[in-house]
């Protein structure tokens, strides 16, 4: 005699509307002492201005897409061309909390786009198994902040599968996607940029796109790549970043940094959202200081393209690296150390890092925490005057 | 009603009679009215704060609609010194214990009165005085922590228990397995309280598990378990009361699975019409709501009527609105608080970073919202 589990009874809906939705509005008629939009609660403007890529011309027809739509497009292309490909994670079936998988389950079937139980270590472990058995596994972790239960599977298993087996087995078919980075109000657990933890793990590839065109091409390259890849998607850009994106599949190279803007006096290196901050810093430096900045989007954190950065620093003699993650042990430390080894005599000033402070990511203090354009601009000024 | 788990099970099954009809003979009218007022006050606060997020006044919110019975019933069965570990949908426990509206609001507004110093998203409450451990977003992390806390509390020999709340989705995490197993093997005075509310964001229970819910897992760990009607505040009270008594007396964990329904969206970032029908939600809202069921119980005894309802609705709304307006006007915490409590003591490195931040902000002050923060 099994205990009864809750029964869901469907009844004919009554005329009354659902109590929880909408009726709250009537409750919030304001007293005279409350202004309708108190200054204290106005949402502050975003800390960046998205700089769209020029329209790609060599990949066929393009369509206007935001970042989440460009991800959907990459996934759609993959499911269409690769019959073994499956997409799974929490809430992906209805389209995902950021709408990256909208429409895919209906189009390709519930055996290919499916929810898993709520368990990140399970999602990645399962994904490794899918990959090892020869199918293409695309695992979604709901927020990068929640990837840590899967750290053991990623670092001890996925990354080391090929090496430890003498190349008998590998996790090349595994790609892990996760929303990443600050979003204005994400606080400790919806804002993290964990790339540095994974950069310390040989065997993995770690990739961060700056916009829709890059995202689709880089994600398709990650999926095609024969190594386990982690693809971090800047969540603040999901809606805000809009570009013309090719509808057909295309691949952008991994481990190749891109000079998004040429310059002669200072090299600025960043990835993800921060690339757009740097572009604005470059404009400010030109206008206010007459300084010409070269902006590099690193794109792949591991294995990273030291050649492109070196080539730039040899030219400019000055390097500023910026990321939201805390400065100590952040990936800027690796870049800084390697560049001073390779380009020591070319440097006109110490390498600057403008990063998050060494604290957890704070909620109400976010405007003070993030490495915004003013902090980066000030660092450029100091380097020029060194 | 309270149902037992598997009569044919080899493990001792634990039964309790209870329910709206006869389960509350030991509770005074005063106590029951307090249950009702706390549940409805929570509901009123939820409506106002949900709306305030829609208006851009706070950044985020999670409502507790439909689960008020699980909060108040269980909280009422505990001692005030019992330690509470929650997930994020247990605000009614804190409300029952007396956490003031001003402090709920302060946390949601991240203003200078927030006990958490403005660092966390809304609804991540914590209160040392009320023995409610600060909420964190990652799911199920509190479960093994609760086991450890219960072990330490056992050794204190102070007649204290620990309760650990989580949803049926969080129960899928590896940490849940760890917490259940540790608490049983290490003989901890701990109540595991699972709010089975039907959904983990969009994921319904049949995609979360295929076994007989969460209660059926208990015997697998050697843990006595019970399933209750979570929308019957008296059943929840009775089950928790008995679990607490035995957990402390016998130093073993108990698992209560409270069947309920998440009437609201997962959060202000969710629109649940994308994955469930209005009919389904309406059923629970209209036919099986813990607040309505308690009200019927009270009106049947002439403890409550339309006049009392009208007066209370007006008063509770006034209380919430006054706290809300006060919270809106309050400044945010001093930005120095971004750097403290990383460790118990500030490190020299953090001191330098703080000084650098202020130097920078002084130089570029027109670009930072300093007026909104305490000086």
Question: How would you sum up this structure, described in words?
Answer:
The complex is a heterodimer of chains A (386) and B (375). By secondary structure, chain A is an alpha/beta fold. Chain A contains 14 helices and 14 strands. Chain A has helices at residues 24-27, 67-81, 104-108, 120-132, 151-157, 161-164, 195-199, 212-224, 237-240, 274-289, 306-316, 331-343, 366-369, 373-384; strands at 62-66, 86-89, 113-115, 137-140, 174-180, 205-207, 229-234, 242-246, 258-261, 266-270, 293-297, 300-302, 319-326, 352-356. In chain A, helix 12 (331-343) links the parallel strand 13 (319-326) and strand 14 (352-356). Chain A is globular and about 60 Å long. With 375 residues, chain B is α/β, with parallel strands linked by helices. The longest helix of chain B is centred in the N-terminal third of the chain and has 26 residues, at 29-54. Residues 3-23 of chain B have low confidence and may be disordered.
